[in-house]
Predict the 3D structure of the following.
Amino acid sequence: MNLVGTLYVLALSGCAVAALAALLAPPRARLQLAGWCTAGAGGLGAAAGIAAIVAAGAGQSWSAWLPELLPLAGVRLALDPLGGVFVAVTGVVAVCAAIYGIGYCDHGLDGRVFQSVLPMFVAAMLLVPAAASVSTFLLAWELMAVSSLLLVLADHGRRAAVGRAGLWYAVMTHLGLVTILAGLVAFAAGAGGESFEQLRAAELPPGARSVVFLATFAGFASKAGIVPLHVWLPRAHPEAPSHVSALMSAAMVNMGAYGVVRVGLDLLGGGPAWWWLLVLTAGAASALFGILQAVVASDLKRLLGYSTTENMGLVLVGVGAAGFFAASGVPVLAALALAAALLHVVNHAAFKTVLFLSAGSVLHATGTRDLDALGGLRTRLPYTTVVFAVGALCASALPPGNAFVSEWLLLQSLIHALPGSGVAGAVTMPLAVGVIALSAGLAVATFVKAFGVGFLARPRSAEAERASESPSAMLGGMALSAAGCVALALAPTLVVPALGRAVGVVFPGRDVVSGELTLRLTGVAGMVSPLLIALALVAAVAGVLGLVRVTATRRARRAARLWDCGAGPMSARMEYTATSFAEPLQRVFDDVLAPESDVDVTPVKESAYLVERVRFHARVPDRIEHRLYDPLIAVAEAVGRGARGLATGSVHRYLGYGFWALTAALIVLVVLW
């Protein structure tokens, strides 16, 4: 067994040990043992992914099968640089989340079942990118879906909300599994085998290839939270424990993007341009819709859930552009767009881990996720404030944040395509550039709102006033993830060569080599140095502060109350809430967001003209859920109520149902064959 296989098997073994420790260890040691074993397994998984990438760079074969862990079930595993990137990302996120979970779960989530399912969830996410056959892939995918569902349902403090979120997630994830199953089974049937090597060599008719791609894309898009299949994500993420939310948002949704790349670009070998224009359009719509919902959200974790939809949309914009350029005969730009998409996967995993763990720290300290009820946390949660600020800067796609680098690369690929990308490219690429620019601007407003209103304003509730900093284990997980964000922001050249090797799996002979993130691709020129940008910003801030200090020392200081229009001392009621901060943007996008408001006027009992109370309620519902899913649910409920009449208790009638169902199935088979 080579080094990659050894590390990978040790990582899976570590997950199994963590699960056993959670089930068998005594209560006092259970949490520590399970948490540290899961963290160790994540570290070994990250090492295995990195080793697979390094081995490919050294010219070693990465296609050798890893040991069959379940020979009777035919499990086949292989780890190439593309899968290695996703395994490494999952492992690093698992390390941060597991360490954080030791402190977070010490307050009510230390049960045996929860602690044993968490490492199984990590193991499933390590298995998916290494699967090398259809059956192995589907087995790992279902294990990932079931384990994540159990974790979403773990918190019983909000039973009704958690139950609704779990129901939505269960339905959407298993409908996605059905479409993936149908597409891959049809693919394997046409190829005459289920191994990925056989699928790559298969020559399917164009119509069958399109059916396979569309079926699998629907399932993968559902897992990635792409519009209109995103509705589970802003429901499940807020209700799951915060470190589980981090694993789902920073690692699990990546598997949707991995599936599109693996099946569409690798196993199917690309396809017609319209495939990838569909992917790009879905990604652009998700990016714009997700960030619009995030900018008006006042629930902190729901805001982060919609931000995940936005960022995965940006990833699919890059994947769609890569496929379109490859179909258009521009492999250089295809490699650049795919490298940008993979870099954004890495960056999004880093800053979303930071943000969800920080949101969990806020929830742990205050008991609420409502930004309108927070404020003043800067003095009460100083470490959480610093870490959240790092994540907010990175998520805003502003320098020196890490998302700036990947979005800059993505824009480079789209802008350089404008001169000669054909009519479809000439129309699509400028629109994609505009969507990325608009989503970046709205992301800035979103995280200025989240950080400014939640941390820097005055406290608006007794819970915010009484908040205290989180335990050291939680702070340790948050600090590790923040350090990763800083490293990626200042030195993205550490990961770009590895991503270039992953790109080489799909587009052989194409690589993205970086110096100061200099694009050395024929026909494409561009350079940016995040480290120099950061140093320039630090120098500028230091210069301004120094100038202010020198100027201030020349004048006599006097203390005075801030100008308050004669209204008296400032209070929390005079400051912007998250809702009022977003209200101007909501007005701009009223036609898209379709906000709802209700005014309830209660008159005095003795008179219809005197008002006792006026209550105003406003909300911004998910318009896609309201317009698309609510009617479907109503139809399903009506069908269910009507079907009750079929259950009469008569055995003869039930036999008749079976007879006519079998007859109909035979007729369909005769027509098809």
Notes: The longest helix spans residues 331-366. The beta strands are 596-603, 611-619. DSSP finds 26 helices and two strands in the chain. The radius of gyration is 26 Å.
